[in-house]
Amino acid sequence: MTKDILGQALLDYQNENYSEDITTYSPTLDEEDVMPLPYLFRDYSQMPQLEKKALRLCKGKVLDIGAGSGSHSLYLQEKKVDVTALDNSSGAIETCRLRGVEKTILQPILEYSGETYDTLLLLMNGIGLAGRAANLNTFLKHLTSLLKPNGQILLDSSDIIYMFEEDEDGGVWVPNTGNYYGEVDFQMTYKEQKGKTFNWLYLDYKSLENAAELAGLSCEMVLEGEHYDYLARLWKDSSK
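That's the Class I SAM-dependent methyltransferase sequence above. Prediction below.
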């Protein structure tokens, strides 16, 4: 059975057993980082502007994909929005329920079908769930199948080109691995337990725009963040 590292950490924090944060290690970038658990339980006032803008743009029936602790769902629920939190982590969904999220689904997004929504919300680099650039078309087409007519997809991501070395002429040295530079592997560690390494995708806006067009979607930049991050809105293009 795969360890639910994120879910266990969220439940510990929710149940007031907080003693440490999640550590993430990327063999791709050879970098270790800390994911502070309190940040995953932030309220609206503590959210970055990209997230606040996305929440304000939500309309109709909303599916919060990769809901985590449910912070975005809770805000929308408080605003009387019909929102459902979806996550493939049982601990995350249990945390959502304990916090008061009324509608939850425990399932990977690519295995979910049946209902359609006015807004699909994918925050905290939600496009990362695609895993690899080669999976984008399948991923976006599946999201499209969950949209009502005139529905929208709201997602944020980051262009991680800034992480690579710049030469004197302003060019960037990106390792020639044959893969898109935003494809990253991660492993989470929590309380001496290591999770399985998983694929994650950071996508520059132009690449998102191209992928959206291939999937029959229109795409617009809604807001640019302070550090290579952005919020985008996608919708079905009736002319395609």
